[in-house]
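Ticket #4471: structure export looks truncated?
Reporter: QA, pipeline team
Priority: medium

Steps to reproduce: submit the single chain below to the structure queue and open the exported record.
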Amino acid sequence: MARLAGPLFQSFRQAKAHQQAGRLDEAVRLYRHILATEPHHAESLHALGLIALQARRFDLALEPLRRAVAIDPAPAAYHLTLATALDSTGRPDDAIEQYRAAATRDPKDIAALQHLGVALARRGRLAEAEPCFREISLRRPSQADAHANLGNALLGLGRLDEAETALREAVRLSPRSAGALADLAGALHGLGRLDAAAAAAQDAVRLDAQLPAAHHVLGNIRAAQGRMSDAANHYGEALRLDPAAVTTEHNLGNALSGFGRIEEADRCYRRALQAEPGFALAHSSLLLNLNYLPDRSADLLAAEHRRWDELHGRTIRSARHDNDRSADRPLRVGYVSGDFRQHPVGQFFEPLLDRHDRTQIESFCYAKVGRPDELTSRLQARADHWISISALDEAAAAERIRADRIDLLIDLAGHTNGGQMLLFARRPAPVQISWLGYPHWTGLDAIDYRLSDRIADPPDQGATERIEYLDGGFLCYRPPLDAAAVTPPPARSKGRVTFGSFNNLAKLNDGILARWAAILHAVPDSSLLLKAKPLVELPVQDRYRSIFARLGIGPERLDLRAATLSPVDHLALYGEIDIALDPEPYNGTTTSCEALWMGVPVITLAGTRHASRVGASLLTDLHLTELIAADADAYVGLAAALALDIDRLEELRAGMRARMRASSLMDAERFARSMEAAYRRIWRRHCGEAAQ
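Actual output as written to the record:
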């Protein structure tokens, strides 16, 4: 590094004085004068870069700062200033390396460590950020922000108990910090302690009603409690305070969809994507919501799904695979899901995992489960390998799967909440398959197959994935052991028929509600029982009473119930309905199986795409095709005719469990062999294609 002497040294001292006094033009002139004679004077180069940063001329700052670091890499300050310039010009990964260099060269510099942690966290590299924040919290134990940053990193890593501890310390140190309380509420939400989370979030709102994060986290908690209307109100307030918050716009869409306002939800997702076209999660939510909308064409759904891949998927493909291509060897099969828990996906997956032929299939479960439960434990015990990917981003999870040399990777979520489409887009396995969790093909070039049956997915539907048809239905149902006994149809004792639906409210579009009203008109004195979690709120109840009132159905014919406290109580409630009405175009799946197990016949309308044909698939398995309607008028007619035939209702109810036990729907052994045969056909096809 050049050292200055004589007049140049005096010029440097004068330049520094000008800089400190804010006479920046004079300082710049002198620094350039020095560099004209001594072009390797790192201090002058650094000073020029610093002045450019202060003037927000970030691009101008980069060249002198890079030269300063190259000439004299020892000073931590040089790396820190260069990192700031790189961060400000959209080069976050380069900035991280410079922050790291600054922290390494001066381990006592808390600022460098803080900048490094924040930059890593912003890039989602939480496993690297966490030690930075932990070190700061140890060195500055009385600094609330240090504990808050640590807590948020731990929260993102899924280490919820540790996150709560750190965030409680932040609140203790700064009890009137609305931000710290909002962060703590987020941790408690993640732990499932919703009442405590709501109390902390409400305290945050009371302390600072203008803090968007406080309303946002309270919206998240209310949504988890099923109070979707209240959630939407808080998201709306957060958006009023911060209109550019695309995550809040996305979550508002989820809340609106959650209590049936699906058209408004669609607009939220589109606004979020317009503001941030790369927001893959919002795009997936848009796609899921499209499945609920009855008037969206198959071509529109197809185009939107393909567009997801064009925007988010095709740019992140990874390298080829070198798996052993022996066609008949045992297969390494990976299953990816966030729903390996008490959830419909987990429930339908368990019979398959239980009955896998372990001489032919080596199972790997890649679990992104936030709150494991008893079903999680059962699945973990049955899997050959259980790998938690909760703390991994999609790229890291894909690398883990690639390292495990998986042959067939099965997606169980698609574009639903918690889906891993960005993982599958990286193609960590040579063959990738969609099954069970999503009611449409995904649109990803990286997903090769979709497992289904010929009723749910008739041929020639234009799917992006090749449909591999299973022998029998595409589902296997295992009822809970503690389900109540089947009771006689309530119409026999009440003297009137009760129709019912326990489906989520997003499925109850205006068209299906109009058909249900027509059924009620066709069956005098009949009533409709709706059960869904968001019905806990009076505004949501009022919404449905108002809709039915416009359709000529008075409130006395509606029975609106919120979610029951236990699965046992939930199933017992089917004893209060005579006939279950399947929504359309997004049929029930678990709800239909549960209704049938409790003896309740299901009336369904077979539509034109998978989501609207699941009911037909289930009833075909049970040889109850007389309950499948071909059009809207037939749907109303079938429901009305069955309601007027109490003897037939009683006969169906009494024999339904025996019918189900005898069907392919509950034959787990048959189903596992059917799935394994499909896997083998697909693998042999892959080996043959690869050999060509």
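Status: closed, not a bug. The export was complete when the record was re-opened. Leaving a note from the reviewer for reference: The chain has four domains: 6-223, 226-315, 325-469, 490-666.
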